Amino acid sequence: MGLITAPHDLLQLHPHWTEAEELHDVPSWVHVSLQKTPWVVVRRAPALEGQIAVGVRGQERHLRQALNIPASLIVQKVTPEQLIASQFDSNLQTASANDRWDSMPALQALKQLYSHWNNNQMIWGPTGSAGFELATGHPTLTMTSDLDILLRCSQSIDRVRADQLWQQTLDLPVRVDVQIETPYGAIALSEWAKPATDRVLMRTLQGPVLVKDPWNPRLA
Question: Is 213 a catalytic residue?
Fold first, then answer.
């Protein structure tokens, strides 16, 4: 069985990534970025067999490059929930060992969110700039960075529970964007927490769709 990935997984590239044909005709900043930090993030997009749809982060926020690369280039995969386990679950002091945890508001928010969510039997973790920094060790966050979170829910959660979880993000030092990952795609926690909302926008491999039930999108 080949490498199984999901959107927001972080992938470390093999040292010979420069030899990949897919990386020949890309902007020069892509090579500069990957030379410094040879990691990519899995995109929510279809890819041919044996390939993975990924994105490359540049030094500036507007620099993003979408690619399809061979799975054979990957030497390590890190999921958002693994980042939580490595930073908190094994030893809570780990999160205090780095000065960045005290200086970056997004990391302070992550610690506070962990105190809310760690006993709820949920599968979740950071994505975006926070996830990238924690996985790679490369300082990506800024003082104004939001905190992006992925919450995996294979079973449906009702809107009352969604609102409870959403409310727990509102008192944090930065804006928190939580995406609920269902078996069919992702929805925003803030949208699912609104009881008056009839349909919510779900991001899928085929593109965005409006659905009533993200866990059974075939329902009218």
Answer: no
